[in-house]
Structure formats: structure tokens, C-alpha cells
């Protein structure tokens, strides 16, 4: 079976640099994949990407060594299994708030006897190889998003679930949950404290900590703290920022940075 480079990078003690795809287009996904990201996440939770667009984007990413990741809309077995069958090598699941949520997530993403994933890896066989069914349980990476007060209260219970590989912090939702302004990098003190707490508890449980960032500078600082999976911006924001720089130069104006509204 094709290796999952996310796991390989983690085993080497390094951090995965992850890009984010909000544009529902195979060509833009392929273009991003050829830029050298360790992994790229197709976002089905927010934005305008649907299932069929996601499959085309997975196919486009497969032209490179970039690892295909999908953030599903919700903790719903059907879409989790369907995205794995389509060839996703990692899944990020939002709003995992309890141990029961985490157990359900692990169950539906693993074949028996470890879980309850239904068998039908249609495109996954093409991407992963003919021995995919034998090795999928040990190759696929599963992230649970920690972004609510309830999840913080149940953090140790969530982190203790066997088969959960990583937790993914969404700073914007976590900020809202703690009564703060939603943003990625310059979070309010209560959010910064919560982020540090999640990182510390994840390390204690041997679970990888991941986080979304607005800038490379913020991502590098978080890698120094111990995060091993950092997402930076998104294809849509990068395109807008690049276009803004061109227009500003042509008009003779100074470049005004895009406001960080906390959207992925």
C-alpha cells in the first residue's frame, strides 16, 4: 500500500505543512499540489466544495506526492466512509465533543475488527494499491477537531480513545466558544491558554496536535511549541492576497493586508 507521508513525517519527529482547499476545482487543486505542500485538505464543511468536486480534486492531488486530506462536514458515518473510499488518506472531523463522539469517529473509519467501516474502497484501491484493505487501518490518519467548551471539558476522555491519531484545533470556533473574537493567529489570552492546554494534554496522551494558522510566521511559532501539523491560509485567500499585491503595485498604492476574519 502507498505510504502515508503524514505518518512518515511524524515518525521522523517533524511537522506536516498542510495547505487548505476551498475552491471546488481540480485544476486549482492540482496547481496547489505541485507547489510542495506535505498535504492538502479539501474542505467540505465550510465553503462550496461538494462530494463530486472533492473526488475530482483528490484525483488531481494524486498527480503528486502530496497527501490528500478531507475535512468532512460533520460526524456522520456516510460521508466519512465515502471520502475514505474516494481515496482520502486522512480525515478531519469537526465538533468532536465527547468520548462517545471520538469512539464513533474511530469506529466508522476503521475496518472490522477494529471498527465498523463498510467495505467498498472503490477509488482508494487505485490510489492506495490493491492491498489497501489489509493496511488501511494502520495507514489512514484520523483527526478530531477540538473547538468547543464541551470538548475542552472532555479533552482527556477524547484523547484517551484508542485509534484517534490527532486533534485539530480550529482557533476561530474555539475563540467563539470562549466568548472571544474569531481569528487564527493573534488570539485572545483565554484562547491562547486553551490552545496551550490542548497541546500539553495531547503530548501527554501521545496524540499529535494540529492547528490552523493565518500566516507562515504563526505556523513556525506553533511548530516550535510542538505542533506537528500546521495548516496555513487557503487557496482562496492566497489567490486573493496575490491578486491584491499586483493591483496595489499597478495602482501605486501600498499593500493593505487582507483582514483575518477567521474563515478557512
Structure characteristics:
globular, single chain, eight-stranded parallel beta barrel, 45% helix, alpha/beta, TIM Barrel, 13 helices, 264 residues
Describe the structure in your own words.
There is one protein chain. The chain is an alpha/beta fold and 264 residues long. It is 45% helix and 15% strand. The chain has one domain (5-251): TIM Barrel (Alpha-Beta Barrel). Strand 1 (16-21), helix 2 and strand 2 (39-43) form a beta-alpha-beta unit. Helix 2 packs parallel to helix 3 (51-61).
Secondary structure elements and pairings:
Elements: H1 5-11, E1 16-21, H2 26-33, E2 39-43, H3 51-61, E3 67-71, H4 77-85, E4 90-93, H5 99-108, H6 124-128, H7 132-139, E5 141-146, H8 149-153, H9 155-159, E6 166-169, H10 171-177, H11 189-205, E7 208-213, H12 216-225, E8 229-232, H13 235-251
Helix pairs in contact: 2-3
Mean pLDDT: 95
User: pLDDT below 50 for ≥5 consecutive residues: which ranges?
Assistant: none
**How is the biggest beta sheet arranged?**
8 strands, parallel, barrel
Share in helix: 40-55%
Number of strands: 8
Just name the CATH architecture. Alpha-Beta Barrel
Radius of gyration computed on alpha carbons? 18 Å
Instruction: Give the amount of beta strand, in percent.
Output: 15-25%
Amino acid at each position: 500500500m502507498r505510504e502515508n507521508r503524514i505518518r512518515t513525517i511524524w515518525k521522523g519527529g517533524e511537522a506536516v505543512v498542510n495547505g487548505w482547499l476551498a475552491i471546488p476545482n481540480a485544476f486549482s487543486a492540482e496547481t496547489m499540489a505541485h507547489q510542495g505542500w506535505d498535504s492538502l485538505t479539501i474542505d467540505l464543511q465550510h465553503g462550496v466544495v461538494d462530494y463530486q468536486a472533492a473526488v475530482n480534486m483528490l484525483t488531481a492531488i494524486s498527480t503528486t506526492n502530496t497527501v490528500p486530506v478531507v475535512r468532512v462536514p460533520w460526524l456522520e458515518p456516510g460521508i466519512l466512509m465515502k471520502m475514505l473510499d474516494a481515496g482520502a488518506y486522512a480525515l478531519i472531523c469537526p465538533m468532536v465533543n465527547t468520548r462517545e463522539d471520538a469512539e464513533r469517529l474511530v469506529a466508522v473509519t476503521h475496518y472490522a475488527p477494529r471498527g465498523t467501516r463498510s467495505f467498498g474502497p472503490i477509488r482508494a484501491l487505485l490510489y492506495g494499491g490493491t492491498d489497501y484493505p489489509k493496511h488501511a487501518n494502520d495507514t489512514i490518519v484520523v483527526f478530531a477537531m477540538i473547538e468547543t467548551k464541551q470538548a475542552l471539558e472532555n479533552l482527556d476522555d477524547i484523547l484517551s480513545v484508542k485509534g484517534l491519531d490527532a486533534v485539530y484545533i480550529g482557533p476561530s470556533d474555539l475563540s467563539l466558544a470562549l466568548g472571544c473574537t474569531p481569528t487564527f493567529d493573534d488570539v485572545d489570552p483565554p484562547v491562547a491558554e486553551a490552545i496551550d492546554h490542548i497541546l500539553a494534554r495531547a503530548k501527554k496522551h501521545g496524540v499529535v496536535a494540529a492547528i490552523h494558522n493565518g500566516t507562515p510566521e504563526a505556523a513556525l511559532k506553533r511548530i516550535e511549541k510542538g505542533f506537528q501539523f500546521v495548516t496555513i491560509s487557503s487557496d482562496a485567500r492566497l489567490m486573493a492576497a496575490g491578486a491584491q499585491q499586483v493591483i496595489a503595485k499597478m495602482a501605486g498604492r501600498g499593500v493593505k493586508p487582507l483582514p483575518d476574519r477567521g474563515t478557512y
